[in-house]
Structures are given as C-alpha cells and as structure tokens.
Amino acid sequence: MKYEYITDRSDLAKALSHLEKDNFLFLDTETTSDRIRLFQIGNEEEIFVIDIFELPEAVELLRDLLSKKGIVGHNLKFDLKFMYPLGIVPYATFDTMIGSYLLGFERHSLSHVAETLLGYTLDKSYQLSDWSKTELTKQQIEYAATDVLVVRELFHRMRERLNSLPEVDRGEELLKTRTARVFGLRNPAVIVEMAFVQEVAKLEMSGLPVDEGEIERLSKEFDKKLQKLIMDFYIKHRIDPMSPKQIGSFLKSRLGLDLPETQKGNISTDDKTLSEFAHIKEVRDILEIRRMKKALDKLKELRGFIRNGRVYPEFKQIGAVTGRMSSSNPNVQNIPRDMRSLFRASEGNMFVIADFSQIELRIAAEYVKDENMLRAFREGRDLHRYTASLVLEKPEEEITKEERQLAKAMNFGLIYGISARGLSEYARSSYGVELEIEAADVFRKKFFRFFPAFREWHDSVKSELKEKEEIKGTTLLGRPYRATTFTDAVNYPIQGTGADLLKLAVLMFDVELRRKGLDAKLVNLVHDEIVVECPAEQAEEVRNTLEDAMVKAGHIVLKHVPVEAESVVSESWTKG
DNA sequence: GAACACAGCG
DNA sequence: ACGCTGTGTTCT
Does the nearest atom of strand C lie within 7 Å of A266's Cβ? Predict the structure, then answer.
C-alpha cells in the first residue's frame, strides 16, 4: 500500500499540493479523547497520514484545502465533530456508512460494509489503540492509512450502486447542488442524505437547552408524591403497584375484573386495558402511579445528561428503516407534551418551532394520486372533517368533534394499512370513539368508495405480495425500501417520504441562514417538527426563513398537493 | 443478558 | 395498524 507519514513541515506543503487538483478527497481521523491525532487524507493515487501532534500548523492548511473539497469517509459525523471546533468545514460530504443504510445492508461498520461490498476482512483492533503517545508504531500508522484506502475502494462501488437506483420523477433541482456535482450523484434522496450528515453533526454539537432549576424542583416534588402513592397503595393492598404481574392477579382474583391476556399469557394491565375500568378506585390509583412514575423517569433520564444547562442527545441520521431519525441519551423525540416547557432557550435567545401540518396524509394523497383527496387539500379543507362528511353523509358544518375524531382514525388507517378490527380498536383507544367491528367495516368500505385510488393501491400491494414475498420500491425522492408485509408496504413509502422532506427542509433552511448571515442553531428534530434556537432579535426573521424553507422543500417533494408549515417563536418548547 | 410489558413521541 | 427509545420486571 502506498502511503506517506507526514511529520515534517516541508513534506506537508508538498503533500497537500498533490491534492489540490481533486474535487473530492478520502478522509479519516484518529483521535484521542478530546482531539485529532492523525489526519489521513488522500486522492485516487496517494494517501498522506498527517500527525497533528507533530504538525499543529497543518490545521490551517487543511482548513483552506477542505473548504473547497468534498470529503468521502465512513461515519463522518464523528470526524466532523472534531473538525468543526478547529474551523475545518468541508465543501461537501459523502458518507459510506450512510450509503450502507441507503442500500439496505444489515450492518454498517466499515468492516461489515467492506466485507459486503468488497469481500474484505478488516482488522479493526488498532482503532482503540493509544493514539496519544508521542511515538506511534508502524502498525498504527499503517492501520490509519488502510481505512482511507478501504473507503476509497468502497466509494466507487457504492456510488455505482446508488446511481443505479430507480429513477424518480422529481427532485431535479437537487442534481445541481454541490453534493451532487462534486461526487457525481444522481438520486435525490441520496444527495439529501449525504449533505445531511453535516446537519446531524451540527445538531449534536448544539445540544438542547433545559431549565435545570425547574427539572431539579419537579424531580424532588414528583419523587415525594410517588413514594407516598406507592406506600399508600402497598399499605392498603399489600402488593407492589409497580409490578404488572402482581397488579394483574390482584385485579383479577381480588377485584374480579375480567382482564384480557397478553401474548405471553400474562394478565394484561396496560393503559388501554385499565382505562376501561377507570370507574374503579384501585385502577385509578394504579394509573395515577404509572403516570407519575413515567414523568419521574423522564426527569431522571434528562437530569443525568445535563452539562452546563444543556443536554446533548445522540441522533441517528437513519434510525428507522423508513429513513426517519432517532434520538437517544437522552431521547428528545418522546418528551411528553406537558413537559416540553422544561426546555428553554438560553439567555437572550428564543426558540423558533415549526411543523408540517398533516404531512403524511398529503404525501399519501400524492403517492397514490387520489384525485378526490388531492382536490380537498388544494381547496384548503380540513381533511378529517371532509372525510367525516363523506362517510357519514352530512354537511361539514354538522360534523361533531367525535365524528371528526373518528374520521381522523380512518385517515390514519390509510397510512397504516387499515383493517376493520384495527380501526375499531384504534378509534376507541386513541380517540375515545366506540365503534363495533361491523360498523367499522361499513365505514371502511364507504371510505374506499370516496377515495378509490387508495383501494386500488391497497389491492395492488396485496396482490403483489401474493406473487412474491417482498415489495421493493422508493419514496418520492428515490429512497429505496423493502417491505414483506402489507402494513409495512403501505407505510414505508409514506413515512419515508416524510423523512426525505424534513431533511431537505433542514438543508434548505441552512443554506438560507448562511445567505442571510443569521446565526440560528438547529436544536431538535421530531419527524415533522424543527426546533431552532437563535438570538431573540433575529427570531422573527428566522421564523420566516424556516417556514419558507419548509414550504419550498414541500414544493420539491410534492407536485400536486400544497404543503403547509406552522411556526411560532417561544421562550420554551411549547406552542405560543 | 434476553425478553417482555409499559409508556412517551410522530 | 406504522416507526422509534428508556425503564423496570421477570425469566433463563
């Protein structure tokens, strides 16, 4: 393998001059706990291993060089988080780990992907070796260079595969972006994901500000209350209200309740089951204890992650098979709505919060090309109300709240792969609407009469799954998916297109921020919602910029249905 | 340590 | 009925 270990100033200048003609470079770093030790960088012919401990002045040269170059690497989020504090910001990114996700591989580490795509067996044992000592071993340096070599070979195979994905009829605008041009990419979803790597790195660095005092206060208060509730319950009934098993047998044999069984044959005591027996005092007590416990758990989780007034969650760029992100340590995508006021913009700043309205239904309408639903959206109707009026054959003005909720359950059913039993169940548990299975089936049939493209779509998915055991398709922006069940097959393209749209909106927002010289930070993303923190005096302009970016992204993804975004400026993560 | 139940979000 | 993560209990 051809590589050069650079510890000398004149060698460095010469090495970097060899890389100037390329549009993109292959890159990896080796780091100690807090900073970069080695910078491995190369083109198609050469690889240089630059020792930053020996040559700190390399940082400035790399800053200049990389500001004009695309970089190709594996899990670039990791490297970018070390590079940004040094002021090194690449012109564009291509991440072979993200490529692995997009191509639907099972495992995504460099060694797994190298094996899948190149048939290589990689030795990663040096990755965790000591990169802080003065003299690195020959093996360490060779290991460092090897990673770049592997990434280089991976890139060519991977680009070939990504560029061979089915063509889509939208997103042409994205083919002119820097990411597409620098790396020669043709699939709009791939272009979005590769560019989005930098957004995720910045998002993780920003963190999310919290009201630490309030979290401490509430923790103490809830802890006290919960202890008392548990103790009172135990004194009365001599069972642990935290144990579903004990609760199950208590409610069944001591109170004589007729509770259903779980899959494993246990007595079901979950919220949806117990809420039917909410007229019984003991059941209400259990539910109250559970609610309090949950709130306390969430507070405890948050508390352990606070560093100088913020939490720094980990975001997986492709956390779900559909392309959605996920968040952990702490998870900031499942904060209870009534606890969101615990997140407060820091001194002098405000949050700008925006979400897409009814985005998955709009996507579904466009995906199946249902003329009736598309028209309803174009006419600016409240779609749940409209559906209720069609199915119940009453004017929209006469639709009650309950009837609208029922229609909402039906509309959601479209996205999840509706069944009469599922609809009946969902209507009751999520919306408190009683609906017999027979009645649900009548509604379902009517529903499909009014939105015939959905019936045709569901039918064709079913028959395709009878012929083969899988369906392969793409989202509207060309993200590939593979489904083996009916419900997955109708859900993946819709949820996946939603993920495409959110990521595109964030990218377009960032471009506009830089153009306008605003200094807003992305601090959270929750599937159809974007949360930004910015100086209070810029908030209104940032709000307009964000909403505009979301709607413009909507126009790229959806051609036949309008996209609407709602936004607010707020001190805390709440509406208004 | 794995599997399950439960509960929060979109 | 689709997609997630965290906590705690129970089973092995």
Answer: no
Q: What is the mean pLDDT of chain A?
A: 92
Beta carbon of A67 within 7 Å of strand C? Answer: no
Query: What was the pLDDT predicted at A247?
Result: 81
Distance A266 CA to B4 C1' (A): 10
CA dihedral A482, A484, A487, A492 (to 10 degrees): -10
C-alpha distances in angstroms, A128 versus A31, A33, A124, A142? 9, 11, 8, 14
Domain segments of chain A: what residues? 4-164, 212-308, 371-450
The whole-number pLDDT of residue A223 equals 86
Question: If you measure CA to C1', which residue is closest to nucleotide B10?
Answer: A527
- Phi and psi at residue A382, to the nearest 5°: -80, 105
State the nucleotide closest to A413 in CA–C1' terms.
C1
User: pLDDT tens-digit profile of A395-423?
Assistant: 999 999 888 988 998 999 888 888 778 88
Interatomic CA–C1' length for residue A493 and nucleotide B10, angstroms:
16
- Residues of A (177-196) placing their beta carbon closer than 7 angstroms to any atom of strand B are none
Confidence category of residue A263, pLDDT binned at 50, 70, 90: low
Question: What percent of chain A has pLDDT above 70?
Answer: 98
Provide CATH code, domain A4-164.
3.30.420.10
Strand B within 7 A of A566 CB: no
Tokens matching residue A219 = 């923790």
- Give residue A570's pLDDT: 97
The class level of CATH for A212-308 reads mainly alpha
Positions of strand C less than 7 angstroms from a protein CB: 1-11
Q: Is the CB of A409 under 7 A from strand C?
A: yes
Spanning CA of A460 to C1' of B3, the rounded length in angstroms is: 36
**CA–CA gap between residue A512 and residue A352 (Å, rounded):** 15
pLDDT tens-digit readout, A99-155: 999 999 999 999 999 999 999 888 777 677 888 888 989 989 999 999 999 999 999
Using the structure, give the distance in angstroms from the CA atom of A319 to the C1' atom of B6, rounded to a whole number: 22
Beta bridge partners, A72, equal A26, A94
CA atoms within 13 A on the CB side of A396: 8
